[in-house]
Design a protein that fits this description.
The chain has 1 helix and 17 strands. By secondary structure, it is mainly β. The strands form 4 sheets. Strands 1, 4, 5, 7, 10 and 13 form a 6-stranded mixed beta sheet that branches. Strands 2-3-6-9-12 form a 5-stranded mixed beta sheet, with no helix packed on it. A hairpin with a 2-residue loop joins strand 4 and strand 5. The longest helix has 24 residues. The N terminus is likely disordered. This is Filamentous hemagglutinin N-terminal domain-containing protein. InterPro entries: FhaB/CdiA-like_TPS (IPR008638), Pectin_lyas_fold (IPR012334), Pectin_lyase_fold/virulence (IPR011050). It comes from Nostoc paludosum FACHB-159. Keywords: Signal.
């Protein structure tokens, strides 16, 4: 009888921990590694992403965590003349994206997280340009600049150029798509 009660109690605590951890995972948290920090303002289920460091028509964002719950929206509120939104996740968590990712105008959106990215069955995009997600360590530019997710402490001048490549480390995370895709 006591063993049954302990097992039942353990099951309930485990279920609560799982429910709590899924809530905690779905967060967009900026870091402070850019000259002008990314700002995230939450309004209901929408995370409004602003700020960041602008160099020419490129807008750089840096996050400690970037995950989005089912029904949530990550809204990059960029100026209409931004051509590239270049984002990195420098923390230690995989990105779980199961909501809407959107941006203004025709901006291309780059998102790198070397720990991995999971696109859930409810993940959607509303972006006027291209979307590139990768588990690369950095995005490389023709002027030699690297926008690194594994060494984000470097506050150097960011690049005005268009990215030319991705630099993978020795053990990149996986990208997983759980939805059926657009029909």
């Amino acid at each position: 009888m006591n063993l049954y009660k302990i097992s039942f109690c353990f099951f309930n605590i485990s279920a609560l921990c799982c429910m709590f951890s899924s809530t905690v995972i779905a967060q967009i948290i900026p870091d402070t590694t850019l000259p002008i920090d990314t700002q995230v303002a939450n309004q209901g289920s929408t995370s409004n992403i602003s700020g960041g460091t602008r160099v020419g028509n490129n807008l750089f964002h840096s996050f400690e965590q970037f995950s989005l719950a089912t029904g949530g929206t990550a809204y990059f509120d960029n100026d209409i003349n931004i051509e590239n939104i270049i984002s990195r996740v420098a923390g230690s968590s995989i990105s779980n994206i199961d909501g809407l990712v959107k941006a203004n105008g025709t901006a291309n959106l780059f998102l790198i997280n070397p720990r991995g990215i999971i696109f859930g069955s409810n993940a959607r995009l509303d972006i006027g340009g291209s979307f590139v997600s990768s588990t690369a360590n950095s995005i490389n530019f023709p002027d030699g600049f690297r926008f690194s997710a594994t060494n984000p402490e470097i506050k150097s001048l960011l690049s005005i150029n268009v990215p030319i490549g991705l630099q993978y480390g020795s053990n990149p995370g996986a990208i997983q798509v759980e939805g059926k895709g657009h029909k």
